[in-house]
Amino acid sequence: MEDTDTAARWFLRGMGGIVSIPALILIASFVGFGVLCRESGLTLGESVFMTGSVWALPSQLVLVGAMSAGTSTLVAAIAVALSAIRLMPMTAAWVPLVKAPDTPKWHLLLLSHFVAVTAWVWGFMRLPNAPPAMRTAYFAGFGLTLTTVNVCVTALSYISAASLPPLVAAALFFLTPVYFLTALTASARYHAERLALGIGVVLGPALRYYDVGLDLLWAGIAGGTLAFVGHKLLERRRGAA
Amino acid sequence: MSAEAWPYIFILIAGTLATDIWRWLGVLVGARLVEDSDLLLWVKAVATALVAGVIGNLIFAPTGALAMVPLAIRLGAAGFGYVAFFLARKKILIGVLAAEAALIGASYAFAG
């Protein structure tokens, strides 16, 4: 009984994470998404359903583009899957952080739906403060609240979209990259992460500009491996000095 | 199958399945990773580089309303925000506000 009590308390604490800068910035980004859905000709129901069921903003942008262009299911699925590859290493890195030795795998499979950049960054900043047995409850409280609130934000911004000036819409879309960049820098603990951030942010656009296929995948694998090697070299040099 | 249901099934297949499959694979892989291992560090570096690639593309080649803001302003505003973030001892809010102020201010000054 005492255990469920504490778990409930950590769940509530996770819910409280909705009043935080990362959550507020994501909410602002979803205002932009609701507007985009309406401009792209999706229905209100489709837009809201997409936020709840996909829950990865870059993939949602790809999917909206595919739907408004009338792309076939298979082609759209491939495009979205390519844009979502990052979720695999992200989730893999998140698992050792969130799980206790006795956490059932199906809990992790369900909770993994909430893994997207905001909750991932939040998790790396906040989960270490919680006892390991309470981390799934803590993360669930945050993830569930963040998703539910943004489903509502998608609906509200879709309904009230018509009057948004272009510069305000541009400023809203600009929030996401700037926030991700600063939040990832702030939460990085190792050289490998800092190097990966610097290399990826240049390599991603460069590979796209030169029209290399699967540009993001290569940016991740090549950039991540380079950063890892750089980390090892820096560590060795420090060890030798 | 009714025509009204089709877009939702489309979203489930091309959206939900296409993203959640990576999360489920990540859970299966992550369960085998040891904390503080080199393999985990490499996985984290790859994940970070992928997210950084997404960030870079959102600034360099965005879609929608942001695409109408000139590239030089987007790059300058992002750089300005990042420097402000460091000067403010890594306060995320300061960085974001500085970047937004630079984007809006420069758009008014040069494009308006």
What is this structure, in a nutshell?
In chain A, 79% of the residues lie in helices and 0% in strands. Chain A is mainly alpha-helical and 241 residues long.
Comma- or semicolon-separated keywords:
heterodimer; A: 241 residues; mainly alpha; 2 domains; 12 helices; 0% strand; globular; B: 112 residues; 4 helices
Describe this structure in words.
The complex is a heterodimer of chains A (241) and B (112). Chain A has 241 residues and is mainly α. Chain A is 79% helix and 0% strand. Chain A has 2 domains: 164 residues, no CATH class; 54 residues, no CATH class. The longest helix of chain A is centred in the last third of the chain and has 26 residues. Chain A is globular, with a radius of gyration of 19 Å. Chain A starts with a helix and ends with a helix. In chain A, 51% of the residues are buried. By secondary structure, chain B is mainly alpha-helical. Chain B has a domain of 50 residues. Chain B is 76% helix and 0% strand. Chain B is built from 4 helices and no strands. At the A-B interface, α2, α3, α4, α5 and α6 of A face α1, α2, α3 and α4 of B.
Report the uncertain regions of chain A: none
The shape of chain B is flat
Which residues of chain B sit in consecutive blocks of at least 5 with pLDDT less than 50? none
Number of strands of chain A: 0
What overall form of chain A do the CA principal axes indicate?
globular
Helix-and-strand structural type of chain B: mainly alpha
Fraction in helix of chain A: over 70%
Order of helix and strand elements from N to C terminus of chain B: HHHH
Oligomer category: heterodimer
Percentage beta strand of chain A: under 5%
Q: What order do the helices and strands of chain A follow? A: HHHHHHHHHHHH
Distance between the termini of chain B: 51 Å
Give the largest interface pair and sizes.
A-B, 104 and 73 residues
Total domain count of chain A: 2
| Range of strand content of chain B | under 5%
